[in-house]
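seq/struct pair 1
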Amino acid sequence: MATYKKRGYKPKKEKVVEEVIEDTFDESQSDVAKTFEGLDEVANKSEQWIEKNSRPLFFGLVGIAVLILGYLAFNKFVGEPNEVNASNELAYPRSFFDQAEKAAGAKADSLYNLGLNGGADGKFGFLDIAKTFSGTKAGNIANYYAGITYLRQKDYQNAISYLSDFTSDDELLGPTALGAIGDAFADINQPEEALEYYEKAANKKDNEFTTPMFLFKAGQTAMKLGKHDKALAFFTTVKEKYSTTQIGRDIDKYLNSAKYAK
């Protein structure tokens, strides 16, 4: 028998689902509200802290600004003029050093001394520049020239001291200074120290001039110390990487000596 719905009939709504949704919505709203309340509390505490410490913060920022401005002013009005003055002073002793490198005997010694100590007319030498303009580029390079001059004069302790005060990432000067310290130690019969500095010099910069030269010196020094494996490694590197250099072309006999000495 067929059934029909009376006009105006409406099915009852399911209240259980609505209640569940309503309950879930209320819980999420509560979580969000708690989160915002927490953020408000943090913000209020931050504002209170800033208000409480506003004076120290202000003076701290002023102090930082003063330090930055002071540093910039020092560079502008003290550092830069110092660099210029030191560079100008360096030209005088360098001229004597360059002449001494081409001279010999007593004349060379006299020129080296002028380069180190300056002239009687008050002109600075390398020692004066290194001390007076310490911290400048010219003062740093004065340490190098002083060290090399002392090495030429066989004053090895002073050579080591001044060359150790010199720092440079220059392609040639950096390795040369380290290698010169190695030479000084070799000349005062301290081969272990000499080997250490020859290795440093060889590794400082990779080029076809200083690298094979100091690898070769390191190899020779290692041979004298009886460290034949190390010597073989140094000579092999020269053979493999720098065979087109003058040292590389002559390395085979030293390589064979290290092999047979093992």
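seq/struct pair 2
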Amino acid sequence: MAGAKLDEIDRKILAELQADGRMTNVELARRVGISAPPCLRRVRTLEEHGYIRGYYADIDPRTLGFEVQVFAMVRLHSQSERDLSAFENKARSWPLVRECHMLNGEVDFMLKCVSPDLSTFQKFLTEELTAAPNVASVKTSLVIRGAKDEPGVPFDIVEARAKASA
């Protein structure tokens, strides 16, 4: 399946699970128009081939006291593969860092961080992030509010592309 085209049923399964990963297999099968046993086989195949990476609850950080969200743009002194990988590994170890993306251009990495308060983030910034090996500079932007936070991919575009290539 990896590298192969997904059929319409597979795409429907992915869209439904992206919208609600908690539904039962019976409900999923009903929504996509097939019986439960083949639906479960398809889901397992989609998982095995990496289309489905996992299932999780979308937790609101603020309800747990994480009032601060910051994007940190990190430049490194060296962009050798060894140094890039070392920074990625370091970023994985920091609990406040929730996302880490390597970019091209002037910034090497974009980190999405959450923190209970500004002083906790400032301590992380000064004692860990800027002090990390190979970090040349860090610019931060405090999130005032979020306007959109959608998971996954837009399945209406996936379907339109599938129909156009059929």
